[in-house]
Amino acid sequence: MARPNSIDQDLFERGVLVRLAGVDSGYATAANVLQHLEFEARTGEVALVTGPAAAGKTTFVHLLRLALPPRSGRASILGADAGRISGVTRARLKRRIGYVAENPVFVEQWSAFENIALPLQLSGRRPREFAEDVRELVDFVGLGGAADLPVEHLSGAERRRAAIARALATKPALILADDPTGGMSPSDGRRTIRLLAEMRRVGAGVIITSQDETLADAGPNIQHWRLERGRLRPADPATTEPEPEGALE
What is the 3-state secondary structure (H, E, C) of the chain? Predict the structure, then answer.
């Protein structure tokens, strides 16, 4: 039988990147935003978590990226108990998580290429060591020649692509994207989901949040979850169909 302090590592070695069991979480002294979450994500899987505004989707992402601790229950993330880890361990694990924020922040005067390369520079790699890798990411996300433009000159869709490339730069085990298609056209949004879903091919786990229910079929084998009023459950197709005309709000 595994020792108590090895349970999370055993899960990780079996391909479980995230397991939430009865997890509540929230901010400061306010009431819980997330309530009794039961959730699992594995290597090579893509999960889409949809729900209305203020459902708790961003809080969910903050929990998974170790920016917000669980208040109760057990949150096993990348082989560690998120409720008990040290600051040093938290920092180490966060380097293995690629995060695409809802409103990505860049050094606006730098080129997209320079912004994408920043995590690699911070890891101690030299430009000649990562230049080819960054160019491959630029091609992968479809930035093309825009990669050499200052970020302040990019369109909204191009900024999202740059944010995705930056999140992938360190080849993370877990990729979290908080509403990465917000403000995009439907075609650009679906392309973005397909880009993120492609990372399952290299063994990463991908978790995406969105208000757009239609993205559940934007790529193959996407597991669809729904978050409402802080409670998470597998999406039931019957509940996502439009309500009959004249139904009450």
Answer: CCCHHHHHHHHHHCCEEEEEEEEEECCCCCCCCEEEEEEEEECCCEEEEECCCCCCHHHHHHHHCCCCCCCEEEEEECCEECCCCCHHHHHHHHCCEEEECCCCCCCCCCEHHHHHHHHHHHCCCCHHHHHHHHHHHHHHHCCHHHHHCEHHHCCHHHHHHHHHHHHHCCCCCEEEEECCCCCCCHHHHHHHHHHHHHHHHHCCEEEEEECCHHHHHCCCCEEEEEEECCEEEECCHHHCCCCCCCCCC
Yes or no: say if 248 and 235 are a contact pair by the CB < 8 Å rule.
no
Q: What local confidence, expressed as pLDDT, does residue 118 receive?
A: 95
In which residue ranges of the chain is pLDDT below 70?
Answer: 1-5, 237-249
The model carries a pTM of 0.90
Nearest-angstrom CA–CA distance, 59 and 56: 5
Give the pLDDT confidence of 125-134 residue by residue, as tens digits: 898 999 999 9
Can you name the residues that pair with 19 across neighbouring β-strands? 40, 76
Residue 116 CA to residue 219 CA, distance in Å, equals 25
Res 28: pLDDT: 85
Domain ranges of the chain: 107-171
